[in-house]
Amino acid sequence: MSGHYNYLGISPDSESERHYNPFAYEIQDTLLLMDAGYFNIDYCYQADKHGGHVIMRTNGKINPDIKAAFDSQGLAIEGLIGKKLKQLKWHREQIIDLDVQWKSKPGTHRLIAFWDRNKSAIGYLITNLKRAQFSADKVSELYGLRWQIELFFKELKSYSGLKTFNTRDKSIAESLVWASMLTLLLKRFIARASGLIHQVTISTTKSRTVCKRLAA
């Protein structure tokens, strides 16, 4: 996202997303859903120490040591302890729940390996959510909610004017960001209300046209 929105926690497209992470001590009792651009195993360790929770996607280059392995039902898998992650023999549709460790990094981390249909490759999620409370399937399901955040920002930029303004003034930029969000909420409300009245599903892109007509 272009612009200067870092005071709102929104990073410009030209800069690394990692620079805009909240500090680990700020996320106590909070769950962060983070894509591979944020991957940082030290951050996961510090978040856990401060009572925060993360589900973080990793890149495909990681290769930690396996300390324990379980299937999606929580049953132990024999023969993987002591091996490297890249030594996993993979079957599509399989989910493997691992405890892993990096030699040069502190802590033991929970890693969930799954088959990513969109990329036709193995995907990895790091989390500190407890296995007894959150199964591997549940963690994957929770991470899937992050896509709604992506769609939210896409809609803000494409249909609510967030990408069209250019200012370095903090007060002006903040006002325009909030205006964009309020515009989006109004369009969603109109789409939802119209859909209920007419017993149909109306997308927010169509409600954009309705909003323009109302403003005319």
From TrEMBL:
Keywords annotated in UniProt: DNA recombination, DNA-binding, Transposition
Keyword Nucleotidyltransferase: no
Residue ranges of every copy of the Transposase IS4-like domain listed in the record: 28-186
GO biological process, any: DNA transposition
GO molecular function: DNA binding; transposase activity
Family annotation (Pfam families): DDE_Tnp_1
InterPro entries: RNaseH-like_sf (IPR012337), Transpos_IS4 (IPR047952), Transposase_11 (IPR002559)
Family, per entry: Belongs to the transposase 11 family.
PANTHER family: TRANSPOSASE INSL FOR INSERTION SEQUENCE ELEMENT IS186A-RELATED
This protein's name: Transposase
Species: Shewanella benthica KT99
